[in-house]
Specification:
This protein is mostly helical. It has 2 helices and 2 strands. It has one domain. A two-stranded parallel ribbon has the order 1-2. Helix 1 packs across helix 2. It is globular and about 35 Å long.
Length: about 45
């Protein structure tokens, strides 16, 4: 499972979904039953 943390008042829904998606794929690469929080460096690594 991938997740991200954000401030509701500054929320851009599309960006939040992208961050959670990146974290999810990172968790999947680490194996089964993993939990991964989005970190900004993950976006750079994906690109």
């Amino acid at each position: 499972m991938g997740y991200t943390c954000f401030t509701a008042s500054l929320c851009e829904h599309e960006e939040v979904l992208k961050q959670a998606d990146i974290a999810m794929y990172r968790a999947k690469t680490q194996g089964r039953a993993r939990l991964c929080r989005f970190e900004p460096w993950m976006r750079d690594e994906m690109l």
